[in-house]
Amino acid sequence: MPQTADDMDAVAVRTWCSLALEALGREREAIDAINVYPVADGDTGTNLYLTVESATQAVEAVFAAHETGGTAPATADAVRAMAHGALIGARGNSGTILAQLLRGMAGVLADGHDAYRLRRALAVAAAAARQAVAHPVEGTVLTVATAAAEAAARTEDGAGTTEVARAAYEGARTALEATPGQLAVLGRAGVVDAGGRGLVTVLGALVEAVCGQAPEPRRTAVPLLPVPDDCAEADAEGGPAFEVIYLLEATDDAVDRLRTRLDRLGDSLVVVGGDGLWNVHVHVDDAGAAVEAGVEAGRPYRIRITHFGADRVHPHAEPVQRAVVVLVPGDGLRDLCKEAGATTVLARPGEPPASGELVDAILRAHAREVVLLPNDAELRHTAAAAAEQARAQGVRVALIPTRAAVQGIAALAVHEPDRSFDEDVVAMTAAAGATRYAELAVAERQSWTMAGICQAGDVLGLIDGDVAVIGGDVPRTARDVLDRMLAAGGELVTLVLGEDVPDSLADALEEHVREGYLAVDTVVYRGGRLSAPLLIGVE
After folding, report:
1. Which of 61, 70, 83, 448 is the most exposed place for a label (fewest CB within 10 A)?
2. Picking from 1-15, 117-131, 192-206, which range would have the lowest pLDDT averaged per residue?
3. First and final C-alpha spacing in the chain
């Protein structure tokens, strides 16, 4: 039955993003495997996944901001967040085009979310994507997007949102099967277009979001085969050497001039965005010239340069053998870990990094082997996803499941890049596992804890994640926590002070340890802005 006009409200947009991310996660490797055009670099599925991941996180942030009021955000806010998230997180040729498709849809759906506007949104999206590509080619995701819009436009005037979404999906799927006959490189490889297949996946998620049921699978007329090695080799020899991507703050006029200049420098040029923020993607032989063009147009940032055919972990220089990537909760610890030679990712309170950001950090380390320290139990799944994505790009990654920053510090302290990778990982894992961790927090409300009932304003001492001490002030609670932890023995106490904690607290705790535990040393670090006033480690 036709659905109501509310089928594409903010909740449906949120559901669509979530389902699309799940579906692309399942199909990422299969889409990567058929990636032939424009470069057979095997990353289209991964790029689409990371683009949608960024869009999903932006939508979730909008919903989180409305949680206190108990209401869902307006549809306009949700679709604009989706488009903005995709724009700033777009990866590769396919991800950049998908970002423009979502931006085109958002511009229409922000004014309403009935079936008529969904039809219009699909048409505007397809046209916007073609305009963003310097030299559109048939048999690609552009063809699939156009077919989806045309199929949606043919639905009857009385059709509901479900009918429009289903028609778009079926039109896209039919067009996808025809792509090998439109683009010779696809026909030779015996595959459909990878970007087009990703778009069909996203549209399938849209159908499920508006009607609650995923579309029935259909046997594809064209076999989905892995890309033959000779296709990849021929492509690597014949095309530009580098892929350059960056976000750009610039005016419309400056971007028009940038398009002309980049079009002369290379190919696969896609520039998407608007309202002063753009995502620029181009394949060139002179990566420096492409970046310089962006500097002349405005302010480029988040610059990514990938050398086609080279080791994907290193686009700029000879990779080192091993590196450590550390998630840190504050600026002070970031500086500390950088001094120890680690690549850092800042994970501020309430601002968890996406797996794509961790993949960037792993690749930025320019190493064949990487040890990843998440330092937060809630970030372990994100870190695991990033490790898997980096492994798919040729990096050997070991994830050490550190649950706190002090465990990461302990692991980093025993890191030895000259020994074998396995031995280094074992030593770092042992050091982290031998470190008990604690933190202080201030109770926001009355609640029951493992240590009893706390009141709002009480200082809580959490040991290994559980509340063990309830106190009235930070110094006394910190001493009680230390006594409990050191009762089981220890050789070294690590104290990490929050931004507003005075040095006198560290002095007092050092003296407490020195007087009560003669064989125990203490080290103190400034952590900057943390979620807790004090972090404690005992090893």
Report:
1. 70
2. 1-15
3. 63
